[in-house]
Write a structure and sequence with these properties.
Layout (H helix, E strand, L loop, with lengths): L6 H4 L2 H15 L4 H23 L4
């Protein structure tokens, strides 16, 4: 039923607030910037690797 629905269409503002509170409680406010930095670096590496995969090597 929801297989074709976008993820953000199912998540409202209330759910996002609850998720944010849960993340703060689980990890603490001091750890969140470190987690986001690691997530950003991981996404950057993934994009770089997928870009390298698409372009043919000479």
């Amino acid at each position: 039923m929801f297989m074709n629905a976008p993820l953000f269409g199912l998540i409202g503002t209330g759910e996002i607030i609850v998720l944010a509170i849960v993340v703060v409680v689980l990890f603490g406010a001091k750890k969140i910037p470190e987690l986001m930095k690691g997530l950003g670096q991981g996404m950057k590496e993934f994009k770089k690797a997928s870009k390298d995969e698409i372009e043919p090597h000479p």
